[in-house]
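Intended use. Records like the one below are meant for learning the mapping from a protein sequence to its folded structure. Do not use them to infer anything beyond what is encoded.
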Amino acid sequence: MTTPSQSGVLPAETVEALQRALAAEHAAIWVYGLVTAFLPGAQTAAMEQGRLAHTKRRDATAKQLTGAGATPKSSEAAYVTPQPVTNQSSAQAALAVAESDAGAAWRSVLEFTADSAVRGTAVAALTDCAVRATKWRKAGGQTPSAVPLPGQPQ
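Structure written out for the chain above:
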């Protein structure tokens, strides 16, 4: 993630969008922790890569918000999944939703900033989330596995 504009100042609407993206990163990390017990060992590497990617993005976003003079929002104690996670299929579905939600939050950042560094970060995050969401949908047998225009409300 790159730093904010040279002055470090971002408009309030950009800060709010980054806070929503940070909240989505917190939630994604939580979901990755939740599903660990339900996925087979063959998916451990993919799960760890996803968790690590969100952790790095969360930390970089918090740093960017601090640099812009904002206090980063903290994570919640727990989050609600769209359906109970009780098996491998529901775990994969929860991961796909977490990735889609994070992608939507980063797409929203694009709508609320003209800062080129922030836009670059948002595009990279949206792309990463879309790729991981597609992989989790495919692993879970969901169709379609790839959605048109990732980050759009479903």
